[in-house]
Amino acid sequence: MQAIILAVVERAPQWVRRDLEAKDIGVRARAEETLAAMITAALKGEMAQATRTAATTAD
């Protein structure tokens, strides 16, 4: 799981990285929500892939 999260953080767009440091609460919140959505999507994708792999190997 840590590797997945690290991969997402590494490929985060520059605007997300910049906005995470913003003093404006709204700007920072938007960046945090975007990063959280990116991490969630990556984890869901990994879980879906694992489920497909498990179903294939069970046959």
In words, what does this structure look like?
- It is a single chain.
- The chain is an all-alpha fold.
- The chain has 3 helices and no strands.
Distance between the termini: 26 Å
Helix content: over 70%
Q: What is the total number of structural domains? A: 1
Write the element-wise H/E pattern from the N-terminal end onward.
HHH
Low-confidence stretches: none
Radius of gyration: 15 Å
> How many β-strand stretches?
0
Secondary-structure-derived class:
mainly alpha
Average pLDDT rating: 91
List the total number of helices: 3
The major sheet is characterized as: none
Beta strand %: under 5%
Shape: elongated
Keywords:
59 residues, mainly alpha, 85% helix, 0% strand
Summarize the structure.
By secondary structure, the chain is mainly α.
List the helices and strands and how they pair.
Layout (H helix, E strand, L loop, with lengths): L1 H9 L3 H7 L4 H34 L1
